[in-house]
Amino acid sequence: MSSKITAALFGLLAAGPIAAAQVAVKAETIHTVSGPVIKDGVVVVTDGKIAAVGPAAEVSIPAGHEVLEAKVLVPGLVDVRATVGLTGIYNGDDQAHDQDMIESSAPIQPGLRAIDAYNPREELLEYVRSFGVTTIHTGHAPGPLVSGQTMIAKTRTTTLADAVVKPFFGVAATLSPKAQSGSGAPGTRGKTYAMLREALIGAEAYKATLDNFDGEGAPPARDLAKEALVAVLDGEAPLIVTANRAQDIASALRLQKEFSVKVWLDMAAEVYTLMDEVKAAGVPVLIHPTTYRATSETKNLSFTTAAKLADAGVPFAIQTGYEGYVPKVRVLVFEAAIAAAHGLGFERTLESITLSPAKLLGIADRVGSIEVGKDGDLALFDGDPFEYTTHCTGVVIEGQVASRAVR
Amino acid sequence: MLTRRASGRYPLDMRLMFESLSKALFASALGLLSALPSQAQTTAVTGGTLLPVDGPAIEGGVMLVEGGKITAIGAADAVKVPAGAAVVDATGKVVMPGLVDTHSHIGGIGAADSSGPLQPGVRVYDSINVRSSGFRRALAGGLTSLNIMPGSGHLSSGQTVYVKLRYGDETPRTIDAIAYRFPDGSPMGGLKMANGTNSIRDEGKGGFPGTRGKSAFLVRSLYIQAQEYRAKIEAAVDEDGNPDESKLPDRNLHLETLLEVMDGKRIVHHHTHRHDDILTVLRLAEEFGFRVVLHHVSEGWRVADEIAAAKVPCSAILVDSPGGKLEALNLVMECGGILEKAGVRTAFHTDDWITDSRLFFRSAALAVRAGMTRQGALESLTLAGAEMMDLQDRVGSLTPGKDADFIILSGDPLSVYTRVEETWVEGEKVFDLSDPKDQLYAEGGYGAGEEISPYFCCYDHLMKKEAN
Fold first, then answer.
1. What is the average pLDDT across B341-348?
2. I need a surface site. Which of A346, A373, B161, B388 has the fewest CB within 10 A?
3. Residue of B412, B416, B452, B453 to mutate for A, most A C-beta atoms under 10 A
4. Structural domains in chain B plus CATH codes
5. What's the gap in Å between the CA of A299 and the closest CA on chain B?
């Protein structure tokens, strides 16, 4: 991350510590994800971190810990791509403005920070949390050619500083006809790609100016938009490219080659047509919500794509994405369930919404599995988490019981 | 091929066609038809768990199908499989009625345009592309009867049409091959109406209402016009009281439709979300005496007792989260169960493309997660919906005499892991998951999609935040 952005954000994150909480969960089945399944097990969370995991016979619960019970315990779920927090429940216009994920005033605005729009008290956050999601990669939505930045947060109802895991993670771009609306937007796919190249080439020139500054005289003028793209060029932030049709996916891969940047494929409805190319490029796929609407550029999406990505060995995770209308937010476990039932299977599906996204997001040292030393983020269920008729019965985030709803 | 169809697939259509044929042709066609039953193949579905919906589950039961109808259903020792029957072995499977969707937008539909808020004379029937892949996807989801509706961007966007998905190896050539018929031969359907925010437009432009008060005013005004129109028709008599066509008022398709509604022939399918909007519909239905099904009912749980007292059924939507528009802020998964408990006849619908037809079971299953009974959930996908379309004598349960519309599932209907393996309509298999062509529609993939989106006209402003 560019040092200036880091410096600017550091003060923000230096806010107060998270209140310590002591919780233990006894469960009939614990899916640790990183290790074997534990039957009749216990997870102890002390001071926000997992302190012990194991069979009930071997792990004692220290005094002062609230004890919860579950049939099935899994790591807190990680949503690899969402817009909730910037996207609000009202979908209102001027009377109830809560839609901050798309800024249409210009086609390329990488300088827009997600943290300046994220509302940790958004009702939809509480909603997705009650279904087990504890960590989200959220931010500006697909749509404009470059819509802005993304961030990573815990889904806690708290201050921004307490919620944020990474204030700046990636830059969101869209290669599709969806980028062809709004002020100054391109009118064709060719122009869309040309404008993105121009922006990156402009950022390269800016980077050269910064690198060549010898400290003599006035420093180069700051350009917030280009600073964010420099982070992309430096490989500090991925360029998260939304592309659904095969030709748009191919364009995203071409961009990766030309600029040697980290490209992540977002949505990728037709990725099964280019699996070899995607695998060879080493590009991870944030696969579309399994039940996303099969219309327009997603008309050929398939419930089986997640399984095909897994079979091919392409790194991927399942996302909930962005919804403009109803439902205003998708439920991660519901999207995962349809993939589970269409070839992905239980174990791989659970991994695709826990450890896999944690690894992609560079936060697997903190979340994504139930291991000693990781954050005490847990999701409790009264049966198979993917089954329609079972419930999420509790959610723990960093040792605090964040939801007691039975959903 | 024609004779095979006559025996099973289009009995009502064929009868109507015969009525318009010359006597001689009719006689010869009838001869052909009457020769068929003795030749008709009996299909026996055996070994599976039969869920008739109107009765208890039958383990390892037998269902017989002949001439497109269910002729018998029962335990294996009670229903004998006739010699020569084609046996469909459903051992280990679950067999239940084809699903009935009371609210779908598939087929590239479009009825009323933006010229005005009330257009009951416009028919969605005149807009449907039967080649749309949406129909194949619906079959993959186990749906066999649909109410295809125009959108909710109007107080009334026009007439709906009830269709039976007769999609065998050959795609139906026109809408006439799949439309249910009223006894008079006209396409069977209801009338779409809506209130709340979708039909309200900026500052009342183009004659559209700008408020809820104006919405109800416009609806009441048109129904009163229809009552006056009826009075003129009834007054068109000569001095002896006999009908006198010369005195009839000019035909008005909009008002004619409202007369059908007030006569009870055509059911109003009313989009309504907020609790006060729901009560407005009940008030209007009482004032004008129309039969109504409340659709969506996001806040139905808030007025469940009032709905029950009015004896009005509900077709609910279940989407994954509340919000997305102001009137759906209080949508909850518990709604179906609360309505059921209050004694409201409750169905679900896909509202496809709002939810995908292939995931129709999910709506009922998630309702069970939130408190609905299993039996209520099964009825909500079948018999309850059939009743809301006046089709309960033809579909909605595995009952002798009803159309042989059924589905074969790999397991529990309410499990996410269960797949629809086969869909049968009027005794003919129209979807088979083991056929790669059908599998494409069931799971998606290259070529599964199509370009056609429904035409909803008048609430683009609500979707403006969704880029394109």
1. 98
2. A373
3. B416
4. 99-396+446-463 (3.20.20.140)
5. 4
